[in-house]
Write a structure and sequence with these properties.
Blueprint lengths: L5 H15 L4 E4 L13 H11 L1 H14 L5 E5 L13 H20 L3 E7 L1 E2 L2 H7 L1 H10 L4 E2 L1 H11 L11 E4 L3 H4 L2 H11 L4
Parallel strand pairs: 1-2, 2-3, 3-6, 4-5
């Protein structure tokens, strides 16, 4: 279903409830990236929030109304694009992910839900290629393959958060980036000069 379409979301949740009677875990992983162009447009920001942040609220409301209780665990997928790195033309998505993380913290404080956010680094997925292009993927694979996070690594962290072993962790953002956001800076490229830079 279209996550920004509340009626479609209600239909999806009701189908799950009809077949399984309960929802123990919700993983909210929306990928919608309207690009900022030359100037800010209110509609672009609202569209991004409606797709990237607000569905979390819709899912939880519909689940509570349908089943009478929230899922035990909720994991929302966020991004490093508003905290630790600049991504060109990512303005709207960055803002919506900040909204998502804020909502997760307040939901955690208010309701009996173990909710956290997972913030992957650069993950080798079709979504990354759609947003940044195949050339970007190929470039990273060539010059810094360790920078790329495999989808399975993100899945493992998500499972751990829902395993019962990390119930004291609530309202947090867990970064899954192979430690690369810390080292992805100017000094990294200085170290790589001798290997890749050829003076002409």
């Amino acid at each position: 279903s279209d996550i920004s379409d509340k009626e479609a979301t209600i239909g999806l949740i009701k189908t799950i409830v009809d077949n399984h009677q309960r929802i123990d875990v919700l993983v909210a992983n929306a990928a919608f990236a309207p690009q900022f162009k030359d100037s800010y447009e209110y509609r672009g920001l609202v569209d991004s929030i409606e797709h990237n942040a607000w569905p979390l609220v819709t899912y939880l409301d519909v689940i509570k109304q349908s089943i009478g209780q929230f899922p035990r665990y909720v994991v929302a997928t966020t991004s490093e694009g508003h905290r630790n790195c600049h991504i060109n033309r990512y303005d709207y998505v960055a803002a919506s992910k900040a909204v998502l993380e804020t909502l997760a913290k307040y939901i955690s404080a208010r309701d009996d839900i173990i909710i956290n956010c997972v913030s992957p680094g650069v993950v080798d997925t079709e979504a990354f290629e759609l947003v940044f292009g195949k050339m970007a993927q190929d470039f990273i694979r060539k010059f810094d393959p360790g920078f790329i996070v495999q989808p399975e690594a993100v899945a493992n962290v998500t499972v751990a958060l829902c395993s019962g072993l990390m119930d004291a962790v609530r309202g947090q953002v867990i970064v899954v980036d192979n430690g690369r956001m810390f080292t992805d800076n100017f000094t990294k490229w200085i170290v790589m000069l001798d290997k890749y830079f050829i003076e002409k």
